[in-house]
Amino acid sequence: MYTREIQAPRGSPINNGIPLTGTWNNAFAWVDFLSVQRPYSWPLPRWLRDCRIKEWESFSVQDDNIFLEALLGNFKLFQIAQIWLYDKKAGESYVYRKVVPGNSWRMPKSLNHASVECRSYHFFFRIHTWLNADTIKLDIDIAAAKRQPSFTAHIAYCYGDNTVTPVAVSLNFTKRRNMYAYKALSAVRGDVVLGDRHISLAPARCTGIFCDYKGFYPYRTKGILCGSMGFDSEGRRYGFHIAENQAKETRKNNENVLWVNENFTPLPPVRITMPDGPDSDWVIQDLDGMVDLIFTPKEANRFGANFIITHSDFLSFMGYYNGVLVNSENVQIQVRNQWGIGEKLYLRV
Fold it and tell me: Model-level pTM?
């Protein structure tokens, strides 16, 4: 069975200007990629190095009524705030998106007590990370448009119940250029108002995954992300977040993880194939017998951004996962028609 070393928490994924690699069981106190010494073979001014750092935070939240995916990202030449809500009862999806050229949002370097927001007259989206108070909060208030109802949400991740085991990883693209990711699964509480419909999110039935990403990503960045969360047939709260990206030595270290109740299992590298294209079934498998999933897309969300010297394609699907996952205790988690998300990303920026 696949294993990898889980290191004790530390202050930063960068030590004396050199990025570290590994997997940790808590968030770093401070993540500043500008402290990496000579990430490129030629000297670059600080502002240009800053432009090469891409960073974003994302939420996934699910219960019996809704599936919510939210992203706030700074790609330096442009920024994006996006909320994608699927109403399971009505069978309808809603996308709220704002794209802003430039680099005005500053993503926090610490998750202990910080916030980032996108604000305009009809659009408000804020993420408040407050690990010192055992919570992460999402606040959204978007006015109605011609084709979509208004949307308001106040959501809190329940970190204070001692059932959250987060994961932090640092992966290398080159010797001095790396990426960092923090991921955590927990119960979620809150309220969502869609038009005139009010939905309460109860921690006993609602689960969420929070992700924080930063890094010196390649000029041409490609990646596939797969994730879901919920409860299995035996009532265990579980979730998984799996990626296929451009990091090196993924056998030794990667960002793939499975949570079952309060415990997490590092998963091996996977191969994600789409034999009939991204609109048909995705096959997600490893070589260790721990991941064997099929993702069947149902709802599509396509978005592209072009600003003279940059080109981006975001292809997201909501759909069903079926298959088997195996945790570190060799317990099989049967995944049966579990609603989740699959994303295919291409950035040239």
Answer: 0.95
